[in-house]
Amino acid sequence: MSSTGKVTIVAESLRMALAGVLANKLRSGLTILGVIVGVTTVVGMLAVVQGMNASVAGMIEEMGTGSFLISKFAMGNLSTAEYLKQRRYPDITEDDAMELSRSSSWIKEASASVTTVHEIHAGRLEADNVPVKGLSSTFAEITQMELARGRVFTDQENVRRKNVCIIGPSVAKELFPGLDPLNRFLSIDRHRFRVVGVMAERGKMFGQDLDSFVLIPHGSYRKAFGRGFHAVLIVQANDANAVPAAIDDAIGILRRRRGLRTADENNFFIITQEAMITSYEQMTGAIYAVMIGVAGISLLVGGIGIMNIMLVTVTERTREIGLRKAVGACRMHLMLQFISEAAGLSSVGGVLGLLLGAGLAALVRGATPIPARVIGWSLPMAFLFSIAVGVTAGLFPALKAARLHPVDALRQE
């Protein structure tokens, strides 16, 4: 047979495959639902998870370039034994922060930070479950939080425990609607604080309002609420390259302040920005696992559906197959027809899944602060995988059709 004849037969096989798909639109549509769900899950959830990673990385970077944390507790999930052990460690204090700033040439600033949740009142208005953060006055020099109006509290206000505060935009709108909150007063557990600043808006993340908070001097926090709360230190090195040296200095200074001997382990923990990002990405690994599981099950269901439909198609078209074999169609041409039909079904599901996945990413990006973006490599990967599912699912029905004897097929009622 000439090459032109072979091309004609191949083209005819593909045309018949397309006709077979279009002849049963409803059945074909139901068949590819599993493929659509699987591809949508892969593309959409990859975009969302990457957006979440980017958002968390941005929040961590707000600590400031070259910054790290010092905490009484280790990061991550702790066992009961670990928690009880670390709970007995000495508290992190503002005096520790001052000593680090004073004694290390590698450390630019250190700020103590402690957070609890309170009800905030201003006149007859109130805001529930608002995080109240006690911070050293140096926090503004370390973090990248921006003021929209007013000023930060001073070192003297911290030392003298003055009742001044900086509020988030959400607290400003809730307690002072239509008013300039500067120099107005709010109450935190019956303690009155004067508003001296309003921070810039940051939006929401995972449904949590990032603009609902009150910042007060660390000294004022201790005066109002006592010392029984877990504080951390935010430490900024001179620059990003100085972080290792700053960490070494911080460890040495804190060990001396706590009277630890050479053989004693640290009773505090250093948490770098890289460690925080790594820990978060490990947590999102669970999301990836669930996503892969959902996508895998959906594609498996879709593949089984395609295989079942193709087996039904082979049965329905037995006489047609026999007639084609009687007039010269070979096994390869019949296999090509049915594999093409299965691949066509799955590729349509793949395209629809790509569109829905991109739409899901756009919806998340528009409705939330998560910068969900479709990852370029996820599109061809998901599409090729959907075609592979179709080809695999169509292989057995195609073999069954190709092996039919023309005489037996023509006798089929």
Reconstruct the topology from this structure.
Elements: H1 3-23, H2 25-31, H3 33-61, E1 67-71, H4 80-87, H5 94-103, E2 107-122, E3 125-135, H6 139-142, E4 147-150, H7 155-159, E5 164-167, H8 169-175, E6 185-188, E7 191-199, E8 204-205, E9 208-209, E10 214-217, H9 218-225, E11 231-237, H10 243-257, E12 269-272, H11 273-316, H12 318-326, H13 331-367, H14 378-402, H15 406-411
Parallel strand pairs: 3-10, 5-7
Antiparallel strand pairs: 1-11, 1-12, 2-3, 2-6, 2-11, 4-7, 5-10, 6-7, 8-9
Assign the structural class, choosing from mainly alpha, mainly beta, alpha/beta, alpha+beta, or little secondary structure. alpha+beta
Largest sheet: 6 strands, mixed, barrel
* Count of separate structural domains: 2
User: pLDDT average, as an integer?
Assistant: 79
What assembly state would you assign to the polypeptide chains in this entry?
single chain
What's the tally of helices? 15
Order of helices and strands: HHHEHHEEHEHEHEEEEEHEHEHHHHH
Instruction: Work out the radius of gyration.
Output: 32 Å
Number of DSSP strand runs? 12
Beta-strand fraction estimate: 15-25%
Strand order of the largest sheet: 2-3-10-5-7-6
Terminal CA distance: 33 Å
Helix percentage: 55-70%
So what's the overall shape?
Answer: elongated
Regions with pLDDT < 50 over 5+ consecutive residues?
Answer: none
Task: Give the gist of this structure.
This protein is of the alpha+beta class and 413 residues long.
Notes on the structure:
The protein is an alpha+beta fold. It has helices at about 5-25, 25-30, 35-60, 80-85, 95-105, 140, 155-160, 170-175, 220-225, 245-255, 275-315, 320-325, 330-365, 380-400, 405-410, and strands spanning about 65-70, 105-120, 125-135, 145-150, 165, 185-190, 190-200, 205, 210, 215, 230-235, 270. The longest helix is centred in the C-terminal third of the chain and has 44 residues, at about 275-315. The model has no long low-confidence stretch (mean pLDDT about 80).
